[in-house]
Design goal:
It is built from five helices and seven strands; from the N terminus they run E-H-E-E-E-H-H-H-E-E-E-H. The chain is an alpha+beta fold. The structure holds zinc ion.
């Protein structure tokens, strides 16, 4: 099952508008990890990532789109520089633990998301229904 998320789509559209390429379709999929398929024109974000703080879902789609825009499948220095630039454009500063952030901070140093306080210490494959409730605006995020 695939859920299309308008908000994450808008993030990808904004990023693709800055590059000489066609827009990418963002799919929310019930998978363990995200994927980037530049040639066929879509990226995916796992459902569990959308159940984290909104900033983390932004990070996730930015990460996948950066794979396409950088042309790098791996987390090279070129990839990471582009990822940092796009995260900054959304007001996010990553604190990396390896190739993935252990924390996302605001530009003023406030912690917006931390894996230590994450709902999903290990990526899992949750029920898709909980995302739908959030998509319907019934989440309690402040
Ligand atoms: Zn990656």
């Amino acid at each position: 099952m695939v859920v299309i998320c308008d908000e994450l789509q808008e993030v990808a559209d904004l990023m693709c508008a800055s590059a000489p390429r066609a827009p990418l379709l963002v799919k929310i999929k019930n998978t363990r990890r995200g994927y980037a398929h530049g040639r066929t024109g879509w990226v995916s974000v796992p459902v569990w990532a959308t159940e984290e703080r909104l900033e983390y879902a932004w990070y996730y789609v930015i990460h996948e789109v950066c794979h396409v825009l950088s042309g790098e499948h791996r987390h090279t220095a070129k990839f990471q520089a582009l990822e940092r630039r796009w995260l900054a454009a959304f007001g996010l500063v990553p604190v990396y633990r390896g190739v993935y952030p252990g924390e996302l901070q605001s530009t003023t140093g406030r912690t917006l998301w931390s894996e230590l306080r994450s709902k999903h210490l290990r990526p899992r494959v949750p029920r898709i229904g909980s995302y739908r409730r959030r998509a319907a605006g019934q989440n309690e995020r402040s």
